[in-house]
Amino acid sequence: MRIVIDQDVEHFFRARITDGHCDLRCSIFGAEVTWAAAFAYVMVHKHFKESRDRDLIFADHQDTESLPQLLEFAFDRRVTERSERPWPVHLPAPTFPDANRGIDYVDLARELWLCAIGWILHHELAHIRLGHLEKTLADLDDEVAADNKATEWVLGGLEDEEMKVKRSLGMAIAVVLVAGLSLHRDSRAAVGRRTHPPAGERILRALSHPSFADNHPAQEFACVAVKIHLDRFGIQAPAGAFETVSESLSAYCRQLIDWELRRT
Ligand SMILES: [Zn+2]
After folding, report:
1. For the packed helices 161-184 and 217-232, what is the interaxial angle rounded to 10 degrees?
2. What DSSP state is assigned to residue 231?
3. Is the distance from CB of 196 to CB of 187 less than 8 angstroms?
4. Of 230, 173, 176, 181, which is closest to residue 76 (Cα–Cα)?
């Protein structure tokens, strides 16, 4: 098996069989969009933890004022328009670790971004391992099986609790990102056959895997991240206070699912 880095704006992460070789393809553009999402989710979650305010005004804070432009570049330009234009220099960007600088939110976003990409690549690897690439028609159940396998590989048998939380947050980024991508792209194949489960359903299922206890930090993180995408599409966030984080995640994902189903 080969890992191939390419510049595909159409498919960000995918497994393919080429000349008898299994290729795990990772697009630079996909890595960029994933970083932008990770950074935005981390910054909005930081403010939510500090204030518990669900309606953050980006322009009111120095560390969030550039997020609308970052999200616009990543999702509207890269994802929807398939633009190949370079990353704008004035936008936040990933950096290499620097022991002299101290840890900041860019470092945190980078760590979680790597965990997110790790989970996505394991999902693609699972398609290879489970023999899905040999089928002529993609199956919705294949996606569920690949998600579960990836979660088992990434979280299974892990003793270190901190590492487990970190990888879980990375996984939350990955599944919410997929929802963001499907909102920005038509998730149906050309013949009108759905190739992936509704994105909201997928988030709920992935974050209800037995590896996640109820009210897991990754579920709260995912709620905040889902709301960013709902807001961008003018989709009403669920009203009311929720008793538990799991309840809140279900309501946010239900909103996403209803919107997706109305659209198709
Ligand atoms: Zn897949």
Report:
1. 20
2. H
3. yes
4. 181
> Which two tokens mark 62?
């120095």
Under 8 Å CB-to-CB from 163, ≥6 apart: which residues? Answer: none
Q: How far apart are CA 177 and CA 38, in angstroms?
A: 8
Report the separation in Å between the CA atom of 189 and the middle of ligand 1, taken as the mean of its atom positions: 14
Q: Check pLDDT > 90 for residue 56.
A: no
Q: What is the pLDDT of residues 198-220, one digit of tens each?
A: 889 999 999 998 888 888 999 99
71 CA from centroid of ligand 1 (Å):
24
Token pair of 135 as six digits? 């089928």
Task: Please name the helix (run of DSSP H) or strand (run of DSSP E) that holds residue 252, with its range, or none.
Answer: helix 245-263
Distance 69 CA to ligand 1 centre (A): 29
**Could you give the 3-state DSSP secondary structure of residue 181?**
helix
Residue 180 CB neighbours (<10 A): 27
Rounded to the nearest angstrom, the distance between the alpha carbon of 203 and the centre of ligand 1 is 14
**Model-level pTM greater than 0.90?**
yes
- Output the CA 38–ligand 1 centroid distance in Å: 20
First to last CA, the chain: 37
pLDDT band at residue 192, thresholds of 50, 70 and 90? very low
Please report where in the chains the tokens 């509207």 appear, as a residue: 76
For 33-85, give the secondary structure using H, E and C. HHHHHHHHHHHHHHHHHHHCCCCCCHHHCCCCCCHHHHHHHHHHHHHHCCCCC
- Rounded to whole angstroms, what are the CA distances from 132 to 68, 107, 116, 152? 38, 36, 22, 18
Cα of 45 from ligand 1 centre, angstroms = 27
